[in-house]
Specification:
The protein has 431 residues and is mainly α. The protein has one domain. It is 65% helix and 0% strand. The chain is built from 20 helices and no strands. The longest helix is centred in the middle third of the chain and has 38 residues. It is globular, with a radius of gyration of 21 Å.
C-alpha cells in the first residue's frame, strides 16, 4: 500500500495541494506583515542608494531613519535587521522602490519563488537519468523537491535564497558541460549578491578541486564585486559595512539557526564557548568540502554526488543561516533524484531515493517541533538540524560510494556521469 501511495499519480496531487496551501498562506498575509519582513531592509537600502545616500548606506542610524520614514517605526520589542548585502544588491532591487513597500515585498517574494522553481527544473534537467522516463515521474520529482516547508519560509520572509539556488543549479549545469569558468561565475556572483556566507563550503570545494578555470572564474567575480562595491560606497562605506556585518552576526542567539553554530549554541548555552566551538566546527566542515573537491580532481568521485554533498555541508558551515536558507540544497536533491528516482522499478534504488527525499523534506518540515520540545532536550540540538546533519552524512556517503571510475580524468576535469545510479545509502545496505 505504501508503495502504491508513493506512485507519481498520488505524489503529484499531494505536492500540488501542499504548494497551493503555501501560496494561500502567503497571499493571506495582512498589510502589517508585508511591511514587516526581511525584504524591507533591502527595499530601504535601495531607496537610500537611489536617493544618493551612498556613503551612509551602512550607517545603522541612516538605515533606521529611512525605515521609519518608509514603513513607520519598528515595534520596540522587535530587533531591527539592517541591510548587510553588498551595494550591488541594492541596485538589483532598486526597480521595486517604484512600488510601495508592501507591493515590493509581494513582487520580490514571487520572483524568489520563480527563481527557486527554475533552479530545481534546471538541476533536474541537467542530471543524468534513464532514457524513456515518463513526464509524470519527472513532474512528481520536481514538485516533491519544491514542497519542503523552506519554500514557504522563503516567500514568507522575503529572502534572497532563490538566487542562491539558481547559482548552484547553473554551476552544476555548466560544469556538466565542461564550462568550468562559467559555472564558477554563476555560483559566486549569485552568492555574492544574495548570501555569500552560505557558499563558504562551495568555495572550499572549488579550491580543493583545483580546476584552474573554475578558480579563475570565481576569483574574477570576487575581485569585480569588491572593486565595484568600493567604487559605489568608498572606503568609509566599506569600513562601515565590515563593522555592521560583525555587529549583525552577534545581534541574536545562534540557537535558532540552521547550521552547525546552532549546535554550538545549544551545547554551550550561548556562553563564552559558543563561538569557539562553532568556528572549530565550521573549519572542520570546510575541510570536508576541500577534501570532496580534492577527490573529485583525482577522479575518485563523480560531480553530481560530490557537489550535492558539498552544497549541504556548505549550508551547515554557514556562520548565519535559517530555515529558508535550506532551499539552496534543493537543486542538489533534484539532480540526485533525477539519477536515482524514488519511483524506480528497482526496489533498492527506490528506497535510497526516498531516504534522501524524506531527509530533505524533514530538515525543514519538523521545524515546528522546536516550539514544543523541552528546552532540556533541545540542548542536544533541534530535530530539524540533526536531520540536516543526517542528510549531509548520507550525501557524503553517497558521493564516496560512487568511487567506481576506472580511469581518472585529466587534471581539473570531472569524472564522467553515468545514466544509471551508482550512489548508495549506507543505512539501507543489505535491504
Amino acid at each position: 500500500m505504501l508503495h502504491r501511495m508513493s506512485l507519481p499519480r498520488y505524489v503529484i496531487p499531494l505536492t500540488v495541494t501542499v504548494l497551493v496551501c503555501y501560496l494561500g498562506v502567503w497571499l493571506g498575509y495582512d498589510h502589517l506583515h508585508r511591511i514587516d519582513n526581511d525584504f524591507v531592509g533591502t527595499y530601504t537600502a535601495s531607496w537610500l542608494l537611489m536617493g544618493g545616500h551612498r556613503t551612509g548606506l551602512y550607517d545603522p542610524a541612516v538605515q533606521r531613519w529611512a525605515h521609519d520614514l518608509l514603513v513607520g517605526p519598528a515595534p520596540a520589542h522587535e530587533l531591527f535587521m539592517p541591510f548587510v548585502n553588498v551595494p550591488i544588491a541594492a541596485v538589483i532591487a532598486a526597480p521595486l522602490t517604484l512600488l510601495d513597500p508592501a507591493q515590493g515585498y509581494t513582487v520580490w517574494s514571487a520572483l524568489q519563488l520563480v527563481l527557486l522553481g527554475v533552479a530545481v527544473a534546471v538541476a533536474y534537467g541537467s542530471g543524468p537519468r534513464p532514457a524513456g522516463r515518463r513526464a509524470a515521474e519527472s513532474l512528481a520529482i520536481v514538485l516533491l523537491v519544491l514542497s519542503t516547508y523552506a519554500t514557504l519560509d522563503l516567500i514568507r520572509a522575503g529572502q534572497w535564497d532563490g538566487l542562491n539556488a539558481l547559482g548552484v543549479a547553473m554551476a552544476y549545469r555548466s560544469w556538466r558541460r565542461d564550462r568550468y569558468a562559467t559555472g564558477a561565475v554563476w555560483l559566486v556572483v549569485t552568492a555574492a549578491l544574495a548570501k555569500p556566507h552560505l557558499a563558504l563550503g562551495l568555495l572550499a570545494f572549488i579550491v580543493g578541486w583545483r580546476n584552474r578555470r573554475a578558480i579563475i572564474g570565481a576569483a574574477a567575480v570576487v575581485i569585480s564585486v569588491a572593486v565595484v562595491s568600493l567604487a559605489m560606497v568608498g572606503t568609509s562605506g566599506a569600513s562601515a559595512w565590515v563593522h555592521l556585518l560583525g555587529a549583525d552576526a552577534h545581534a541574536q542567539s545562534v540557537r535558532g539557526q540552521s547550521s552547525f553554530v546552532a549546535l554550538a549554541g545549544n551545547w554551550a548555552g550561548d556562553g563564552p564557548l559558543t563561538f569557539p566551538i562553532g568556528y572549530a566546527g565550521i573549519a572542520a566542515i570546510l575541510g570536508l568540502c576541500l577534501l570532496l573537491g580534492h577527490r573529485l580532481r583525482r577522479g575518485r568521485l563523480r560531480l553530481g554526488p560530490a557537489l550535492a554533498a558539498a552544497t549541504c555541508l556548505s549550508l551547515l558551515a554557514a556562520p548565519h543561516s535559517f530555515i529558508y536558507d535550506n532551499v539552496m540544497v534543493a537543486p542538489a536533491v533534484a539532480w540526485l533524484l533525477a539519477e536515482g528516482s524514488p519511483f524506480a522499478l528497482d526496489g533498492s534504488v527506490r528506497r535510497r531515493a526516498w531516504t534522501i527525499a524524506l531527509l530533505w523534506l524533514g530538515t525543514t518540515t519538523v521545524y515546528w517541533m522546536n516550539q514544543v520540545i523541552s528546552p532540556t532536550i533541545l540542548r542536544v540540538g533541534t530535530p530539524s538540524l540533526w536531520l540536516e546533519v543526517g542528510l549531509a552524512a548520507v550525501l557524503w556517503r553517497s558521493a564516496h560510494a560512487a568511487e567506481d571510475v576506472t580511469s581518472p580524468p585529466a587534471p581539473g576535469q570531472v569524472a564522467p556521469e553515468r545514466a544509471e545510479p551508482t550512489w548508495k545509502v549506507p543505512l539501507l545496505r543489505g535491504t
